[in-house]
Amino acid sequence: MFDTLTERLTQSLKNVTGSGQLTEDNIKDTLREVRMALLEADVALPVTREFIAKVKEQALGQEVLTQLSPGQAFVKIVHDELTKMMGEANQSLDLAAKPPVVVLLAGLQGAGKTTTAAKLSRYLKERQKKKVMTVSADVYRPAAIKQLETVSNEVGAEFIPSDASEKPIDIVNRAIEQAKIKFADVLIVDTAGRLHVDENMMDEIKALHAAVKPTETLFVVDAMTGQDAANTAKAFNDALPLTGVILTKTDGDARGGAALSVRAITGKPIKFLGMGEKLDALEPFHPERVAQRILGMGDVLSLVEEVERKIDKEKAEKMAKKLQKGGSFNFEDMLMQFEQMNKMGGMMGFLDKLPGMSNAGLQQAIEQAKPEKQVKKMESIIQSMTLKERRNPELMNPSRKKRIAAGCGMDVAEVNKLIKQHAQMAKMMKKFANPSGLGKMMRSLGGMQKQFGGGGGGPLFGNNNPKK
Ligand SMILES: Nc1nc2c(ncn2[C@@H]2O[C@H](COP(=O)(O)OP(=O)(O)OP(=O)(O)O)[C@@H](O)[C@H]2O)c(=O)[nH]1
Ligand SMILES: [Mg+2]
């Protein structure tokens, strides 16, 4: 998502340099380019206009932090305005209401409502420990009810059967009763999609909405439709009060116009992003992180979260404890690090999230260097060591190296390379051997981009950002 926009923006933002301060003159061209970039990303024209006007006003208003260069200051302004445009902070679902909290999903045909019902169930179950039930009020499309049943089973949400001969309102009222009896926390209601926003459809969903009085009414919309997504969301919102929007198929959307326009056009927050067909591909929408990602700063915060979720916490803690007590980072620990990296989707998945890594050429170079293969090599070298050797790196000597190399079919030179690599990692680990070490490590990895020759918009904004 946002690939094209990122490339365009980072290109144009690099051009704001020069001396002293931001002037009408030195930002004129850049503003024009930013405007073009947004329009090409399919951001709605009025939204783009307002955005440019605000950025200009801020830039010339000079409430700019003096420790930043003009370029950095300008990027900061663009970043802050992008964040505001998307709604400042993440808005989660209102789960504080009296249970069962009813979540009504509406949207056009094929937008991803049924899939999203299952994704949301899974999300609420896993991350918020909620008991979730689902029901389908789609009595029009054959097999629609069955589809919801299948995906609900897949994510372990309790599915309430319904029948195509029933009226949607009856289905939902019955489902609410059942959800009460079973003490469900949340009831997710999947509805039928239509081809257009027509009167019939609006009437039915309005009646359903009035009868059910859902706590959350979410409009599910395909991000690939760009600014149209924002316009259909607005049409819905005019008819029934939405509480939020879920953007789906952002994995296939290189432009990002929908994400940028929805809030400004509807006044309603995007609450989640659907990022793939799999039922775990749903993420809360965080405007600031998305703004950072657009500007090529990488999504460091998401990365840290993802790392924390996926990493085998216990193992990591054990290692951290050992390092704190003055223990050394041995080959066994190194092997574990590689395993964790693999769990996170390998090197590319990892790098994609680091600041400044959005530069396409750089990614290509890394891809060609085949880091995955390097890691595999290093893993097999460690695997060919004895347990004693893995735990005591200082035991390494020429004859051991020779044996290890023979054991994995590699040269002693390769073994030496691994030992050198290990020494470097051990040094780094020592530095970060404290409870907040992970965050620090991530930040220092952010600095890696400089060794790679920089790239993207990261360095512009990077170390001088006073807050971070
Ligand atoms: N790539 C991708 N595909 C998605 C995403 N969300 C849904 N889909 C796909 O979109 C197609 C339609 O999804 P459904 O959930 O059936 O859509 P719906 O809105 O319920 O459709 P109707 O009930 O016919 O109106 C399916 O093939 C899904 O796998 C997403 O975030 N990314
Ligand atoms: Mg459906």
TrEMBL record:
Gene3D superfamilies: P-loop containing nucleotide triphosphate hydrolases, Signal recognition particle SRP54, nucleotide-binding domain, Signal recognition particle, SRP54 subunit, M-domain. Residues 297-324 form a coiled coil. GTP binds at residues 107-114, 190-194, 248-251. It comes from the Bacteria. One of its GO terms (molecular function) is 7S RNA binding. Residues 446-468 are annotated as: Disordered. Its EC number is 3.6.5.4. It catalyses: GTP + H2O = GDP + phosphate + H(+). Keywords: Coiled coil, Cytoplasm, GTP-binding, Hydrolase, Nucleotide-binding, Ribonucleoprotein, RNA-binding, Signal recognition particle. Part of the signal recognition particle protein translocation system, which is composed of SRP and FtsY. SRP is a ribonucleoprotein composed of Ffh and a 4.5S RNA molecule. HAMAP family: SRP54 (MF_00306). PANTHER family: SIGNAL RECOGNITION PARTICLE 54K PROTEIN SRP54, SIGNAL RECOGNITION PARTICLE SUBUNIT SRP54. Composed of three domains: the N-terminal N domain, which is responsible for interactions with the ribosome, the central G domain, which binds GTP, and the C-terminal M domain, which binds the RNA and the signal sequence of the RNC. Belongs to the GTP-binding SRP family. SRP54 subfamily. Involved in targeting and insertion of nascent membrane proteins into the cytoplasmic membrane. Binds to the hydrophobic signal sequence of the ribosome-nascent chain (RNC) as it emerges from the ribosomes. The SRP-RNC complex is then targeted to the cytoplasmic membrane where it interacts with the SRP receptor FtsY. Interaction with FtsY leads to the transfer of the RNC complex to the Sec translocase for insertion into the membrane, the hydrolysis of GTP by both Ffh and FtsY, and the dissociation of the SRP-FtsY complex into the individual components. This is Signal recognition particle protein. It comes from Acinetobacter nectaris CIP 110549.
